Amino acid sequence: MKTHRLPPEFYLRTDVVLVARELLGKILITEINGIRTSGRITETEAYRAPDDRACHAFGNLRTARTEVMFQEGGRAYIYLCYGIHHLFNVVTAPQETAHAVLIRAIEPIEGEDVMYERRGLPKKISGKILTRLTTGPGSVSKALGIHTGLNGISLLSGDSPVWIADEGRAYLPEDIQSGPRIGIDYSGECAAWPWRFWVKNTPFVKK
Question: Which CA distances in Å does 88 have to 106, 109, 139, 147, 163?
């Protein structure tokens, strides 16, 4: 699989909804403690300050947690959800513009056995990969070894343990579906915005 690391200009665009759509098909890679795992991104969600009530930085709120969202695009924003799940987001847009994309699901490519071990799941049955191995944002991070200790790292640095690469795959509009984001009922009218994107005809999407 020939890939190249996504360049800074990919992340620095101000249209986070477009970036969320275009992250589909890109390869999320980790190399932690010398162990490499990767998967093709199949589901994403866009979040945009200051007007998106579902965004942690709604109203340009700056806290210790959200500060990384205001940094230049191309960094990881990783936060703890329900005190259990480490959720991996891609910071986008220029500095001082708090946009981010949540990675919700991937299709495993490398290191499946390691992913099963990290997730505490039985090995694949009859050669089939369990779809729940890497569907759901908490499952993605756990399978790839991503945790909040990596919050704020650059996805652009050559020595980063986490990065995103492009293998030249581009989906046609009819290959992608969109709909409301999940678990944000508290956000009023923003809950209906169709800012969740997923690849059609793949089992690696959170049901």
Answer: 12, 18, 10, 8, 12
